[in-house]
Amino acid sequence: MTESTVDTLAPSVAAPGAVSPRKVFWATWFGWMLDGFDSSMYAYILVGALSELLPASGIEPSKANIGIYGGLLFSIFMLGWACSMIWGWAADRYGRVRIMCWTVLVYSLFTALCGLATGIVMFALFRFVAGFGIGGEWAAGTPLLQESVPENTRVRLAGWLHTATPTGLFLAAAVTLAIGSTLGWRGMFLLGILPALLIAYLRSNIPEPERSAAREQPSVAALFAGDQARTTWAAALMMACIIFGLWSSNFWAPTVISTKLVAAGATPAHAQEMGAVAGLITNVGTLIGCLLVPWLTTWLGSRRRTAVLFFIGGLISVVVCYEVAIEWLDSLTLFMVLLPVLGFFTNGVFGLFTIWLPEMFPSALRGSGSGFAFSMGRVLGAAGPTLIGALAARTGSFPLAISMLSLIYVVGLPLIALAPETAGKPLAK
Q1: Which of 139, 149, 318, 357 is most buried, by CB atoms within 10 Å?
Q2: Are 310 and 345 contacting, i.e. CB atoms less than 8 angstroms apart?
Q3: Sign of the C-alpha dihedral, residues 115, 121, 126, 127?
Q4: What residues does the Major facilitator superfamily (MFS) profile domain cover (predicted)?
């Protein structure tokens, strides 16, 4: 992408200067919230979409095939998300606000196009490009917030930024419950064009942060030189563990509930509604986790100790929810009761990394470093959904497959010690 190409999206933003921290927070928050809406909608309408697209592609829409192709499509979406690391470099080079606008345009357009897909290959292509756009919004938006607000509010606002994700998940579940059966899966995807409306507001109201307005051109190679290399790889591998854990656990809750209810004789419409309810319940815990992260990091006095708490909690909550409640006790009621705990640990942990990741990199590399770590984490974490689908098809049990792969949190514990401790330190310049 050339500089002249990027400039065509909109005229230049206002000159760098003071801007309300509240305005910057809500602009980045809404961008991330709409990301959450777009990316989670698939989980609620998975069965309906594949029930139509698989036969159109000459594939039987059996339970096993829905599991296999559903997991594969999750992974394709995440690989698109992983390829978005280029957006972080572009945000360092061309500006946070400008690149954030481009990412919003890409993910909203291609999410809407998913609703027009006529076969599984076309659908997979649109999901890949939508993921590419969604991943870039974080790489541009998170540094934008951290560099635009006062130091005394930075940690709190950065931690709260991830509350946008569960809010987007709430919205997707609520829309599914309210009008999902009326719109159908195609209509739900067509709603994905709405985030494009955010672009006009961003371009007219949010200037580039002063910290990033005038600096040397970044060298991506610096991410992999000296002490910074250890930080870069530690960040990327930690992100891989939590992304693998998230997409291999609570994002499958609606599918587990839907398939279990359909097998018990429930109608597909009722099963879809209960899957959406599960999403709402899970995200209560996620929202609480994100709200508490700034307090937890202060109370524990360490980013590392906070990460250990979430990694261990993630492992325990996945095993208890899926292996104990579903597999051993066969209790959907207990599973639903435990879902907020699952959301707290497996998704609330991202609130920590909206604080911690940008602190690990200097200003000239903040977008590139944060974007690389998050995106490379998605490359490695993308295997999770496909493995879940394959293991579930082989074992005949989604809960058992999910519980087996929760060991990824154990793998992640030693990586925490390799990352720099940034608690109590100002944002690097």
Answers
A1: 139
A2: yes
A3: positive
A4: 24-423
DSSP code at position 425: -
Cα 427–chain centre separation? 24
Amino acid at 220: V
Provide φ and ψ at 356, rounded to 5°: -80, -45
Give burial (CB, 10 Å; 0-12/13-18/19+) of 295.
Answer: exposed
Identity of residue 6: V
| CA–CA separation, 292 and 105 (whole Å) | 32
Rounded to whole angstroms, the Cα distance separating 249 from 267 reads 24
Q: DSSP code of 20?
A: -
What are the angstrom distances between the C-alpha of 397 and each of 44, 123, 146?
19, 26, 43
Tens of pLDDT, residue by residue over 198-214, are 777 777 778 877 655 44
Q: Reduce the secondary structure of 352-385 to three states and give it as a string.
A: HHHHHHHHCCCHHHHHHHHHHHHHHHHHHHCHHH
pTM above 0.90, yes or no: no
Query: What is 267-309 written as a DSSP string?
Result: -HHHHHHHHHHHHHHHHHHHHHHHHHHHHHHHHHT-HHHHHHH
Q: Return d(Cα 283, Cα 190) in angstroms, integer.
A: 23
Q: At what angle do helices 21-56 and 181-190 cross, to 10 degrees?
A: 110
- Asked if pLDDT for residue 406 goes beyond 80, the answer is yes
Angle at 347 between CA 341 and CA 351, to 5 degrees: 115
E strand or H helix at 4: helix 3-7
Residue 50, C-beta contacts closer than 8 angstroms, at least 6 positions apart:
61, 65, 66, 69, 70, 73, 120
Token pair listed for 378: 């998605």
